[in-house]
Amino acid sequence: MSKRTLDLKLLSFTSIVALLIEFIFGTANVLYVTIAPRNPWGASHPIAVLYIHVIIGLALLINGIMMINASLEQPEAGALGHTIVGVAGIIIAIAAGLAFVNGGGRSNLLSLIMALGFTLALFAYAFLLYHLSRTSPKQTDA
Question: What sign for the dihedral angle of Cα 38, 26, 130, 3?
């Protein structure tokens, strides 16, 4: 198995774990964070939960871009497509999340779009990890 394949498998697994942690913080935001309509980024309470959610989302985006880069040299068919779909899901979730907070946290539709972006990214990375796990052990180049 090539080093690129191992790197991509590690990044896929990391993304899946981070997405699940992000889901927990997203749920905590829905249940416990009150977003102030006039100053959503400064007067929300408890703001730390919201900021941790945002930081994990940005880390997921950076990790996704690293995955696209790693998949460019990946001989495995579909690796690039899976990573692009995963990053697209993250971008959709981030865009909906920004709009949600800027709108005072009152939009069920934006909340749904965030969840759909999360789901798209989770499935893309899970399928990528599955396909990479089935790669032939004959590939031993570095």
Answer: positive
Q: Which two tokens mark 97?
A: 């999340």
Say if CB 67 and CB 14 are below 8 A apart.
no
pLDDT over 70, % of the chain: 92
The pTM score is 0.89
| Domain residue spans of the chain | 3-133
Cα separation of 26 and 6, whole Å?
A: 30
CA dist., res. 31 & res. 83, Å (int): 31
Q: Which candidate, 53, 47, 46, places its Cα nearest to that of 19?
A: 53
| pLDDT given for residue 7 in this prediction | 84
Q: Are 113 and 138 within 8 A, CB to CB?
A: no
